[in-house]
Amino acid sequence: MAQIKKQQRRWSKGKARVRSEERKKK
What we know:
Region (Disordered): 1-26
Structural class: mainly alpha
Number of strands: 0
């Protein structure tokens, strides 16, 4: 479970970047 939590934290950073790019595209 600890591994999943670590991956989720990394995903959070990636998600924020994707969201920022999507906003720029729109």
